Every structure is written in C-alpha cells, then in structure tokens.
UniProtKB/TrEMBL annotation:
<dbReference type="GO" id="GO:0000155">
    <property type="term" value="F:phosphorelay sensor kinase activity"/>
</dbReference>
<keyword id="KW-1133">Transmembrane helix</keyword>
<dbReference type="InterPro" id="IPR050482">
    <property type="entry name" value="Sensor_HK_TwoCompSys"/>
</dbReference>
<protein>
    <submittedName>
        <fullName>Histidine kinase</fullName>
    </submittedName>
</protein>
<dbReference type="GO" id="GO:0016020">
    <property type="term" value="C:membrane"/>
</dbReference>
<keyword id="KW-0472">Membrane</keyword>
<keyword id="KW-0808">Transferase</keyword>
<keyword id="KW-0902">Two-component regulatory system</keyword>
<feature type="transmembrane region" description="Helical">
    <location>
        <begin position="151"/>
        <end position="175"/>
    </location>
</feature>
<feature type="transmembrane region" description="Helical">
    <location>
        <begin position="88"/>
        <end position="107"/>
    </location>
</feature>
<feature type="domain" description="Histidine kinase/HSP90-like ATPase">
    <location>
        <begin position="321"/>
        <end position="407"/>
    </location>
</feature>
<keyword id="KW-0418">Kinase</keyword>
<dbReference type="InterPro" id="IPR011712">
    <property type="entry name" value="Sig_transdc_His_kin_sub3_dim/P"/>
</dbReference>
<dbReference type="Pfam" id="PF07730">
    <property type="entry name" value="HisKA_3"/>
</dbReference>
<feature type="domain" description="Signal transduction histidine kinase subgroup 3 dimerisation and phosphoacceptor">
    <location>
        <begin position="217"/>
        <end position="284"/>
    </location>
</feature>
<feature type="transmembrane region" description="Helical">
    <location>
        <begin position="46"/>
        <end position="68"/>
    </location>
</feature>
<keyword id="KW-0812">Transmembrane</keyword>
Length: 409
C-alpha cells in the first residue's frame, strides 16, 4: 500500500482528492482497534477473562487488516476499475460474523439484573465488528444488496448473544442500536466513494471540454479551407473539362482556358497559404469574448483588457493576435488547472503586446499532458508578421506569455 504523501506534487487535483477520501476510508478500518480497546477497558466483567481479551484483540487486528484491503478493492470497483471485490466482501462478512461468535462464546456473560448492569464487553466488541465491517460492504455493493447483507450480519450475531447469556430483549435492543450505527457509517463511506467518482467525472468532463475546443478549432479551419478551395476547385474542374473539349476540336480557345486554370490554381495556392499562416481575418473582439465564454464554462475567471481602441489596429495584427488568444485558451484548458486567467492588450514602442497569464500550472507536468506543439505553432504565426512569442519567468504555479507584433508605420 503506497504512502499517501508519495509523489504528492505530481498528482493532479482529482488524484489528490481520491487520495484524501481513500485514506479517510482506510482510517475507518484502523479505528476498529481503538474501539476494541475501549470495549475491553470499559466493559464490565473483563477482569479474569484474559482468554476473551486475547481473542478480541486477535480478531480485531485480523479484521482491521482485512478491512484495509476490502476498502481498497471495493472503492476501485465503485470507480469502475478492475477489482475482485466480491471475494473480499464475502471474506469480510464471514470474518465479522465468525469473529463476533468467537468473542461472544469465550467472553463473560455478565449480569443483566445487577445494578449497575454489567453488560458483557464482548458484546461491545461484536458491535464494533459489525459497524466497521459493514462499511466496505456499502462501498462495494449497491444499497439494494448492502442493506440485506447488513441485516443478515446483525441477525447472524443474535443467537451468539443469546448463547452468551445476554437476554433476548437486551440483545435485540443493543443490536438495533448497532443497526442504526451501521447504517450511518455505511452511508458515510458510500458518500466518500460517491464524492470520489463525482470528482473524476468532473475531470473527465473538463478533458472532454478541452477536446471539444480543439475539435472546434479544427472544424473552423476546415470551414475556412472549404471556403477557399471548394469554389476554386469546382471552377478548375469545369474549365479543364472545357479545355479538353476545345482541344479535341482543335480550337485555340483551349490554351486560353488552361491559362485561366493556371491562374486560378496559383490564386488557390496563395489563399491556402494565407489560411495556414493565419492571414485570414480573425476578429480580435470575437476571439476574446469566445475565450471568456469557454473559460467561464470551465469555471475559470477571465479578465480581459483590450485597451481603449483595439479596432484601430491593422487587420493583419488583429488576426494574428486573435489566433494567439484562441490557441492560448485551448492550452489553458488542456495543460493547467487554472482558476484565474488574464488577457491584456497594450501598445508600446510601436508594437502591439498581448499578455496572457493564468494560474494552476502544476510544478511537475502531469503524465497525461504529453508534449504539444501549440507554442511552436504560435511562434510560426507571429514570425510571419515579424512578431515574437516570449515566456518570461513568473512565480511558481503561474504561466505568463507575451506575444508582440510590430505596428506598421
């Protein structure tokens, strides 16, 4: 079993949340032993029954070890990971019931008529076994199965209490109290597992959202490429077919048609190059507003300051800075766990400077991030306009990027 502090800085927020909740369940199993010791120390009639004390301690320790493993596999099963949870649940239930019988049969019967009542400490040990043993059952089984299992555990211990000399009415009342406690702690453990699953679902939804942002970018590029090439390719096909027909008839107009095809092909090549380099107009305001909407949907606060008159910037400068905002938004969603993002545009020394900053950058890159080419692509776009992209050093956990483009004149 790994230490909860190992490689803590390399874990993402969902992984840290799971570690916290998982070890909360493990501590639930560990708390069984203090309960057994409390029962031995406070239960009347413990003196002179060293065999019962030894059996209680041995069974409590064995049950604690089994519960640690059962909690682990049942939580993995709840999170839909491969785990052999059924055999461990059966082992836990069998150990709890058998341990309760063993403790009750070797322990003192107690005097239920004495004042104050001497309730057998072994009954308290059996109660703790029932309560804590039922917790992993609630995690590994749905309520429609865990409730009958818990009721069966309680009913199976009643005959042992009667054989130990505990009155039927007293045993029934005591076990009713145990049933309420089992239901409460079982529901708490189930809620821990539910919270863990919800955190992972939210993380998966965020990952899907970042992928949708990338897919939207690809779709937008495909639409631009279709707009550029669709009409031109159709025209080239028609003119080529016309040139073939004219050539077969020996008409000189075929050469004119092929010259037009060549001209259209060259124009298409230039337009495709413009699309790839980002020369086509990308509205700066639209990209900024879209970025804020996407980030807010991901629960990231976004501050935008485009200055007083961003519309006076040349169209090509607005276009390339719009591409920077678009790509940076995707990077924030995919490669950080940001809660705050800043987009600021200013002009200084004859250059337009776009500053982007966000928090939530892990100290060590997460294994799922991999290596991307987003910054390299942005540098290529900016280089086509004699611009540059810099990533200055910032405080730990913060990422800051400056995109500068020279202004004409």
């Amino acid at each position: 079993m790994r230490s909860p502090l190992r490689n803590w800085r390399r874990l993402s927020k969902p992984q840290r949340t799971e570690y916290y909740l998982r070890w909360s369940l493990y501590l639930m199993a560990v708390f069984l032993m203090p309960g057994v010791l409390f029962a031995i120390g406070t239960g009347s009639g413990a003196a002179g029954h060293s065999s019962a004390v030894q059996v209680s301690l041995l069974i409590g320790l064995a049950t604690t070890l089994v519960l640690l493993r059962t909690f682990r596999v049942t939580l993995d099963h709840y999170l839909r990971r491969p785990a052999e949870h059924r055999r461990w649940i059966v082992l836990t239930v069998g150990l709890v019931v058998a341990g309760s019988w063993a403790v009750m049969l070797v322990g003192p019967a107690g005097d239920m008529t004495a004042k104050p009542v001497q309730f057998p400490f072994t009954a308290l040990v059996a109660g703790y076994l029932l309560i804590f043993g039922f917790c992993p059952v609630c995690v590994g089984l749905p309520p429609r199965w865990s409730a009958p299992a818990g009721l069966g555990m309680v009913v199976a211990v009643v005959p042992a209490m009667v054989l130990a000399g505990v009155g039927a009415a007293t045993a029934t009342g005591f076990l009713m109290v145990m049933t309420v406690a089992m239901a409460f702690l079982g529901a708490s453990c189930r809620s821990f597992a539910w919270l863990t699953a919800i955190v992972w679902e939210l993380d998966a939804a965020r990952e899907a959202q970042s992928r949708l942002a990338v897919a939207e970018e690809r779709l937008r590029f495909s639409r631009d490429l279709h707009d550029v090439m669709g009409r031109n390719l159709t025209t080239i096909a028609l003119k080529s077919e016309l040139a073939v027909q004219l050539a077969r008839r020996g008409r000189p107009e075929a050469a004119e048609q092929m010259a037009e095809v060549q001209k259209i092909a060259q124009e298409s090549q230039r337009e495709v190059r413009d699309v790839i380099r980002g020369y086509r107009t990308a509205d700066l305001h639209a990209e900024a507003i879209g970025a804020r909407a996407v980030l807010r949907a991901a629960d990231i606060h976004c501050d935008i300051d485009l200055g007083e008159e961003p519309d006076r910037l040349p169209p090509q400068v607005q276009s390339v800075l719009g591409w920077v905002i678009r790509e940076s938004t995707t990077n924030v969603l995919r490669h950080s766990e940001a809660a705050r993002c800043l987009i600021r545009l200013r002009q200084e020394d004859g250059r337009a400077v776009l500053e982007l900053e966000n928090d939530g950058v892990p100290a060590v890159p997460l294994p799922s991030q991999g290596g991307g080419t987003g910054l390299h692509g942005l540098r290529e776009r900016l280089a086509a306009h004699d611009g540059e992209l810099t990533v200055p050093t910032t405080a730990p956990g913060t990422f800051r990027m400056l995109a500068t483009v020279p202004l004409p004149g």
